[in-house]
Amino acid sequence: MPDTAVTAAPTATSTATSTATLSATSTVRTRLYRDGKLALENFPAAEISDHVAEDGSVVWLDLCAPTPDDFALLTEEFGLHELAVEDARHEHQRPKLDRYKDHCFLSMYAVCAAHDHEDLVIRELSVFVTANALITVRTDDRFDMDDVVSRWDDAPELGQFGVGFLLHGLLDHVVDGHFRAVQDMDDRIEELEDILFDANAKETRDIQRASFALRKSLVRLRRMALPMREMVNTLMRRDVHVVADPMMPYYQDVYDHVLRVTEWTESLRDMVGSIMETNLTVQGNRMNMIMKKVTSWASIVAVPTAVTGFYGQNVPYPGFGTEWGFWVSTGVTIGISVALYFGFKRRDWI
Predict the structure, then answer these.
(1) 18-to-8, 47, 63, 72, 90 alpha-carbon distances in Å
(2) Which domain of life is it from (predicted)?
């Protein structure tokens, strides 16, 4: 579903509704769940306060590229803590979950492996969780929010569990992205393993560069995925009051995926290190083989050099000045050279 830009003009409302509106430069998406069912979608942001005040209503607000005035409005409308809003305004936050008196703040990263290079594509997301509202803040439109909405629509029977249901769909999307990224890097590591012992493999520098890039990506992925374990585990605690008991199995499934990603990342990082070390060992073995071959051919070439040099001395020798002496020296050169060739060949030196 495409993002919809909403510009609302100030209207006279009740005291519970602010007369301020979100700026026209930010992209806004909204949803209203009433008694567990989707009631409204993409309604004006100015109506959020009215819907939040209703019993049995849950609101989702998505802001893309918000302005400072938008954050000020969020603070006023939802009573968000200023430190949480400050973290949402600034990029490159550490993945974390901060708990406040009546809401939580989550900072997380969606990642995926790029197809044209070894680096990761990272998308930052800030999330505010209140008793009856889920607010997602994106710095740009690179985060695929449509997939999250599809997950909500695929499980309408879970809508009765309110914010916990909406947050689960979001976390499930993010963790699945981590899982796909680590799986893609696993496939690329297998490709490196296949060409590692290939005689016609790419240059050593290319293998080393690909291995180093993979190791760097795995370290970055681990930084994004590892804090998710503590984040999901904290949300599952009963004193947080975010996840209802019927939603616990779904959050447990997300937690299991987080554990798999972190463990898989650790094992792949060790594998990349082994590939780099093995590649150096293979190149050393190939260099030793080349040195043996060069030395063997040098030994064979030394035979005719020695024979012709000996017969080139200005002293008489057996066969000096005769035809049969020439043929003897030629036979000695060829015979010794052939014998050395087959001797080296049998030892796999040539």
Answers:
(1) 12, 9, 18, 11, 25
(2) Bacteria
Say whether pLDDT at 48 is over 50: yes
Closest CA to 70 of 46, 96, 106, 94: 46
CA end-to-end span of the chain = 66
Taking the C-alpha atoms of residue 29 and residue 75, their distance in angstroms, rounded to an integer, is 18
Residue type present at position 45: A
Digit-coded pLDDT (tens) for 95-104 = 999 999 899 9
Whether 14 has a pLDDT exceeding 50, the answer reads: no
Query: d(Cα 52, Cα 59) in Å, to the nearest integer?
Result: 7
Q: At what angle are helices 323-346 and 248-311 packed, to 10 degrees?
A: 160
The whole-angstrom distance between residue 299's C-alpha and the CA centroid of its chain comes to 53
| Stated pTM of the model | 0.75
Angle at 233 between CA 230 and CA 235, to 5 degrees: 110
Structure tokens at 183: 């799986």
Report how far residue 311's alpha carbon sits from residue 303's, in angstroms, rounded to the nearest whole number. Answer: 12
d(CA 226, CA 258): 8
Q: Residue 328: helix, strand or coil by DSSP?
A: helix
Task: Give the pair of three-digit tokens for residue 273.
Answer: 């290190």
The torsion angles phi and psi of 166, rounded to 5 degrees, stand at -65, -40
